[in-house]
Write a structure and sequence with these properties.
Length: about 300
């Protein structure tokens, strides 16, 4: 592992450039997505970059509250954890999953208010420490890695269409446009506990990381994401991705966060096709939870 900002063995100076952007889209009245990108000097102690994307649900005010609570909660808890920089690998992944659990509990508590009942949010968190990328994930926002011009999806969607694809009942392209594409099967804040997926990825020189809400991936194809990320730096890529989603109709709020690695190892193993490495807490999804999901999703 090499720290960013210092010379590695090859003499290059590893750096990380990151940017984020959100847009209401062309159809919705309000934006229920939230995000945060902290890199360079703004990064919490012991971290080279922190990116969070959350897509809230549960009706106007509540969805906005849930996604904002998730993002602010995660940033606050990670910033307040200066005593843990020595934990690496699966240990750090479990720490990050535990933070998502804490935020889940807080959103669930807040959702006991009558006007916020059923609110919840997707939550995808990426932490870069040296050449290690840690991702904690719940819902159907996504993390992608662009390496050597090819786009790889890191996270697996917790959605109805994803389950149908896994069962071989729906093709990838059909899933993207399916009327049920908004139904998610896991979210932060709907139950006292949530199952959190964790992914650990080794980063290499020129890697580009993308986090996004489904307002991007239901509007444009992976091939278009791939070419935009290949052609632009992080800030310009964020603008171009949002503009591409809006050009296709902008049916949903769109949020993107992009980070580009410069320097460090020239190669690293590719992330396997979406498959969680570590989970923190497993709960069975009960019929009552499913009804809750369906209700909240209808209001998305
Ligand atoms: Ca959305």
């Amino acid at each position: 592992m090499w720290p960013f900002g210092r010379k590695d063995g090859s003499g290059s100076i590893p750096r990380l450039l990151a940017a984020g952007r959100t847009d209401v889209g062309r159809v919705r009245a309000g934006n229920e997505d939230s995000y945060k990108v902290l890199s360079g000097e703004k990064s919490p102690v012991g971290i080279d970059a922190l990116l969070v994307v959350a897509d809230g649900m549960g009706g106007h005010a509540a969805g906005e509250v849930a996604s904002r609570m998730a993002v602010e909660g995660i940033v606050g808890l990670i910033t307040g954890s200066d005593d843990l920089p020595s934990v690496e690998g699966q240990g750090y992944l479990r720490f990050l999953g535990g933070i998502v659990q804490q935020v889940n509990g807080a959103v669930f508590q807040a959702s006991q208010d009558e006007d916020k009942r059923g609110m919840g949010t997707t939550c995808t968190v990426a932490v870069v420490r040296g050449d290690q990328l840690y991702v904690s994930h719940v819902g159907d926002s996504r993390a992608y890695l662009l390496r050597a011009g090819s786009l790889h999806q890191i996270t697996q969607d917790h959605s109805w269409v994803e389950e149908q694809v896994a069962l071989g009942l729906l093709g990838r392209e059909e899933a993207r446009a399916h009327p049920n594409r908004n139904i998610i099967t896991r979210a932060v804040g709907l139950e006292q506990k949530v199952e959190v997926d964790g992914y650990l990825v080794s980063l290499a020189d020129k890697d580009i990381l993308l986090l996004c809400s489904d307002g991007l991936t239901t509007m444009i194809e992976d091939s278009q994401i791939e070419s935009i990320l290949s052609e632009h730096g992080p800030a310009e890529a964020c603008r171009a991705l949002i503009s591409a989603a809006n050009c296709q109709g902008g049916h949903d709020n769109v949020t993107v966060a992009v980070a580009r690695v410069t320097g460090g190892p020239s190669s690293a193993p590719l992330p396997a096709s979406p498959h969680p490495d570590a989970d923190t807490v497993e709960i069975a999804r009960s019929p009552s939870v499913w009804r809750k999901f369906s209700r909240s999703v209808l209001r998305r």
